[in-house]
């Protein structure tokens, strides 16, 4: 198991290096080759006639490793290549092999949220729009990682923007800043829901100020703050 953890760490470092250098085609090739290499090892062990405990353990470890590779490939497809249908497949395969991979559950839900906000991707959104499934993945991610502020923030934004479940969205976003008080993004989302839905301009003002305090170099935060100042 430790060997496979080292393999995943090595993979993650190379993946990050390729992305940072904007070598996205090379990164995709690296992901596909890594997944195929582990798949070959899995098929080899599955072909053994001796189904020993060691072999079963090796298969489980290799499937977990492949799930980690699939998750990172899904991130590449989702966040960088914008090939959302393929990203969904990778996330799905990852959570099938690694049901406890909270990051994959959270990313699956976030993909639905992200595509919902991209008007130009409406045709794809109509194809994958499955709020019930997305909500399941968000809840599963939080169940697995109850102290993950990013999961709470992503789920809160999904509830706010896509399901119009404002009270539950507010609870999730408040939990995000409770877990990570300096999370500028969560403060921005709280300010937005207070401003747009609850019309509580005092609280919107407070959270926009915190969003700027924790992310001083983001011009969008100042623009949002200027808008709410008009109402304050």
Automatic annotation (TrEMBL):
Keywords: Repeat, TPR repeat. PROSITE patterns: TPR (PS50005). It comes from the Eukaryota. TPR repeats lie at residues 115-148. Gene3D superfamilies: Tetratricopeptide repeat domain. The keyword Repeat applies. This is Uncharacterized protein.
